[in-house]
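Work Package 3 (structural annotation) set out to generate three-dimensional models for the target panel prioritized at the project kickoff. During this period the team completed the workflow that converts sequence records into discrete structure tokens, so that structures can be stored uniformly alongside our sequence database. As a representative example, we reproduce one entry of 212 residues exactly as it appears in the project archive.
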Amino acid sequence: MSLRDSKGTPEPVRRLLDSLTRLPGIGKRSAERIAFYLIKDANVEALDLSQAISDVKQKVVCCTICNNIADTTPCLLCEDENRDATVVLVVEQPRDLIRLEATGMYKGAYHVLTGRIDPLAGVEPADLTVDALLQRVDTPQSNCRGVKIVEVILGLNPNLEGDSTSLYLASQLQSRGIKVTRLARGLPSGSQIEYANTQVLSDAIAGRKGMD
């Protein structure tokens, strides 16, 4: 019998365990350890965690230009006049943007798709922010600081769905006269950008290739 199912477990603790086990990567044992840590040893940490979660839900928004998570919109990256807004790096998720930005190698703008095309899972282009990307290309006023886009770098994960999405985007962008490149294949096939180290990502940015 798990702690959550025990009659000796108070209802607030059961609800905490239920909430923790619904989080990705946290099983019953991990949930119990976290719950007891918060109950016994971490008054300040528990309150800080509660406040941080509340702040995330209340204050974090999606940038109206690049769709990255932010606490203001347009976000600081889109508003930064030192970044080259003529070049846009397309990624699947905000966590990919964070990993690429950490390399310090890229000084252009971004666009977050919030996923990838996967017909088997029911994900079509309309379910992503593809239209918003094309709007930025077609209408410079929709891009960062009203700048015209001349190059789009496809920074999707190197797997079947990522490659399929890249091919779809390339066809849409090239028909509009946009230069389309993709990150170099220093990223192992089937891997995820969020797990790649900084050097691999730096090489992938520096060695980006044109889309055939």
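The domain at 3-59 is CATH 1.10.8.420 (Helicase, Ruva Protein; domain 3).
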